[in-house]
Amino acid sequence: MTEFEPTVQARAAAARATVLAGIARRRTLFASAWNGRALHIIADLLDTVALAFYEEEPTDADGIPADAWLALADAESTAADTPGTGFPGEFGHYITHALDSRPLTVPAPLAGIGCDLADEDSRLAAALEILHGHLAAAAAEEVAQALLEALFALHDRRAGLAQLAR
After folding, report:
1. SS (H, E, C) the chain
2. How buried is residue 91: exposed, middle or buried, by Cβ count under 10 Å (0-12/13-18/19+)?
3. How far apart are CA 122 and CA 125, in angstroms?
4. Within 10 A of 115 (CB to CB), how many other CB atoms are there?
5. Closest to 43 (Cα-Cα) out of 73, 15, 18
């Protein structure tokens, strides 16, 4: 019986999941009870994602283990259901980007907000686009992890704008 050894890309994806879990845990310190609970759930699911990358052999050619897919889908669903967490609904591509290098996309502009908020949203979307380019070109995984911190700070600001617009 051979022992499974994760690829470099799988280790990078696991590290990104761990970074995002840390971001979620830090945000619980300042979140409402509802958002804090969702952030804990997201963090726990991202821990499962990271563990799956280390312990499970991928089932498909995409390089993603089945348990990682399931936990990531649940984490994204939780984020989409709880926009106050500051996590975009489809944040999983930041993790899977380490495996497939698919282009990263900026979420759609916020709808129904005033001119001042729309200008701020446009600036944040442009900054996200720039950081996506840097993440795609990152030569070292440590740089990519630092960029994730910056990206999710911007996503949190966009979530704040959406809350103001309501």
Report:
1. CCCCCCCHHHHHHHHHHHHHHHHHHHHCCCCCHHHHHHHHHHHHHHHHHHHHHHHCCCCCCCCCCHHHHHHHHHHHHHHHHCHHHCCCCCCCHHHHHHHHCCCCCCCCCCCCCCHHHHHHHHHHHHHHHHHHHHHHHCCCHHHHHHHHHHHHHHHHHHHHHHHHHC
2. buried
3. 5
4. 7
5. 18
Q: What is the pTM of this model?
A: 0.92
Sign of CA pseudo-dihedral 130, 134, 136, 142 = negative
Q: Which residue has the tokens 């497939």?
A: 100
Amino acid symbol at 137:
A
What value does the CA radius of gyration of the chain take, rounded to a whole number of Å?
A: 16
Q: Which two tokens stand for residue 132?
A: 């996506």
pLDDT tens digit at each of 166 positions of the chain: 457 789 999 999 999 999 999 999 999 999 999 999 999 999 999 999 999 999 998 887 788 999 999 999 999 999 999 999 999 999 999 999 999 989 998 887 766 666 778 888 889 999 999 999 999 999 899 999 999 999 999 999 998 888 877 6
Supply the DSSP string of 16-59, one letter for each residue.
Answer: HHHHHHHHHHHHTTTS-HHHHHHHHHHHHHHHHHHHHHHHS--S
